[in-house]
Design a protein that fits this description.
The chain is of the alpha+beta class and about 260 residues long. It contains eight helices and nine strands. The structure holds zinc ion (ZN). The site of zinc ion has 8 residues, from α5.
């Protein structure tokens, strides 16, 4: 077990009367459950570096087979996103998603980098929040091995038709012609699939988010008229693959819809 590591605090929960159980995401060992003595007390000197959404350096000691925080120092605390409720709520959702898809004792370097880069962009206001959330959702799907295959039509290989159709659960696309053929067969056989029609600009941006370098995955532009659709598509894609929703997402959306 690691006794010194850098990690992002994803969640915290009360543990006994005064202590806290943290879930810390590390690159090399995935999620690590760590206990914080006196975590509920403001007097705890490591408390600030152990808050959710803090990226910190931890030194732990093994007590009774569990790692306890001996020291923690903050590397990045994302101060701005903590001061705006809507941003905090979005960051909590992103941490919940990372917590859902990451495992203990696994290599989670990609998800850690993705989550940190996205929290950084949110904290510094670098991207429209709707686009930021959508891109994070789609890139998470890609990082977890259920990336949609956006290269070309899965039937005939065509890379572009006026509209391509993304089959959400199979993660593949069909060109307009193959879609017409399949659609009539499926209707005859009584099958239905969750299909998202992708216009050329929508397909381009989804390809960019899935296939670009990790550090540049947010460097895309999308015409404003498509923001809502991009957001709906990416959310649908990720949540359908995870097979669950998130109360933190519902809370964030309730704030987003306020005037
Ligand atoms: Zn085709």
């Amino acid at each position: 077990m690691l006794s010194q590591f850098r990690g992002l605090v994803l969640t915290e929960a009360a543990w006994g009367e005064n202590d806290k159980l943290l879930t810390v995401l590390t690159a090399e060992a995935g999620k690590i459950p760590v206990l914080l003595k006196g975590g509920s007390s403001l007097k705890n000197k490591s408390g600030g570096a152990c808050l959710p959404m803090c990226y910190s350096e931890f030194v732990t000691a093994d007590r009774g087979g569990r790692p306890w925080v001996r020291e923690a120092s903050e590397l990045e605390s994302f101060p701005h996103l903590r001061s705006v409720l809507e941003d905090t709520a979005l960051a909590v959702y992103m941490c919940d998603v990372a917590n859902e898809v990451c495992v203990e004792n696994g290599d989670e370097a990609e998800m850690l980098q993705l989550t940190l880069n996205t929290l950084y962009a949110l904290d510094r206001g670098l991207k429209d929040k709707r686009l930021l959330r959508a891109a994070f959702e789609l890139r998470t799907a890609a990082a977890c091995g259920f990336s949609p295959d956006l290269v070309g039509c899965s039937e005939c290989g065509s890379e572009a038709s006026e509209t391509m159709y993304l089959d959400v659960m199979d993660g593949v696309m069909h060109c307009a012609e193959c879609h017409r053929k399949r659609n009539s067969e499926e209707i005859r056989e009584g099958h239905t699939a969750l299909l998202l029609p992708l216009s050329k600009p929508m397909l381009d941006v989804m390809r960019y988010v899935c296939y670009s370098e990790a550090k540049k995955y947010l460097s895309f532009e999308l015409q404003e008229a498509l923001h809502m659709q991009f957001s709906l598509y990416c959310e649908k894609y990720l949540l359908n693959h995870l097979g669950r929703g998130f109360s933190s997402l519902e809370f964030y959306k309730s704030l987003e819809s306020l005037p």
